[in-house]
Write a structure and sequence with these properties.
Structural class: alpha/beta
Strand content: 15-25%
Number of domains: 2
Oligomer: single chain
Distance between the termini: 92 Å
């Protein structure tokens, strides 16, 4: 029966790193889809070690290949199983194996392989294949790959999205306002913004965008310059008031997001007058009653905003 088994062969390079050897090659995406599998904890609690597949993520990859002329150059990392009968022909530097289901266990790239299987487009895929690994060695490699490789920070991706022309309307709007707060000398947040990395004590693009997106709808057709002016006046008053109450800073993500989410309530009271003087008057009840201890201990944005609202309404009578 083995003599009639269909074989696949591809040219490759044999590479040694430390104590392990592996093969580097490219394979058609449809062959990967036909011969690879994952060992998931949900399916095999004893031997499995990988996470369950996310079908939506795989569909995004398939769409990227089929409809966006996508390119995915990152290598899939596989471990050949005994049934694959992997063999290396050194004479012509060729790797040969049985074309069967479960010929290769995926150590890295399971969503890409699943996405390839859903895509109509066939592509050549860079592949790394280990051979003769024990389950212990496979598991250790999986752990090493997923802990020693650092993903690109989200802050950096947001920072460079405009270069790739990937910004959507809201991201572009947030970018313009963030940059104004970072660069303008009159900014209430000057020196407190971090563009491409997350730094303690500074507001990252991720935190800033997440906050602004929640109130994006209230700005209507206002441009970034107008929004900057209104928010900047508001932040100046908030900062000064917080400092008097002993609230360390508005750069803590929970506090910053709460301050931004509270802005629509204050803007509605302002009734078109977004000056520092008017914000001073409107926010006086907040600063007279807000609890620094409570604000700094609360862990949810909703709880902080609720506290702000209570302070504004406390003692109100007609």
């Amino acid at each position: 029966m083995k003599q009639n088994m269909e074989k696949e062969s591809y040219s490759c390079n044999l590479i040694t790193q430390g104590k392990l050897k592996f093969y580097s090659l490219t394979m058609p995406s449809e062959i990967l889809a036909e011969t690879c599998f994952v060992s998931a904890r949900d399916d095999d609690p004893v031997e499995g070690f990988q996470r369950t597949l996310d079908e939506e993520r795989a569909k995004e990859i398939a769409n990227y290949l089929d409809n966006e002329d996508g390119s995915i150059p990152t290598a899939i990392v596989l471990s050949a199983q005994p049934e694959a009968e992997l063999s290396y022909i050194s004479k012509n530097k060729t790797l040969e194996f049985n074309k069967i289901k479960k010929a290769f266990l995926i150590l890295d790239g399971q969503h890409r392989v699943y996405g390839f299987s859903l895509a109509k487009t066939s592509v050549r895929v860079p592949v790394i294949i280990y051979n003769g690994l024990s389950r212990k060695e496979e598991t250790r490699l999986f752990i090493d790959i997923n802990t020693k490789q650092r993903p690109v920070p989200t802050e950096l991706l947001l920072d460079i999205k405009s270069l790739a022309e990937y910004d959507n309307e809201i991201e572009s709007f947030c970018r313009e306002i963030f940059d104004l707060f970072s660069e303008r000398p009159d900014s209430a947040l000057v020196g407190l913004m971090s563009q491409s990395v997350r730094i303690k004590g500074k507001i990252s693009r991720v935190t800033f965008n997440g906050a602004i997106k929640l109130i994006f709808g209230i700005f209507g057709n206002k441009d970034s310059e107008e929004v900057y002016e209104y928010l900047n006046n508001y932040f100046k008053v908030i900062k000064r008031g917080f400092e008097k109450k002993g609230i360390d800073s508005i750069v803590k993500p929970t506090i910053f997001k709460s301050v931004v989410q509270f802005f629509p309530q204050i803007a509605q009271i302002a009734n078109g007058d977004y000056s520092i003087e008017n914000f001073d008057v409107i926010l006086e009840p907040l600063f007279s009653k807000v609890s620094a201890n409570k604000v700094q201990k609360l862990t949810s944005t909703k709880a902080v905003v609720n506290h702000f609202s209570e302070c504004m309404n406390k003692g109100f009578t007609l």
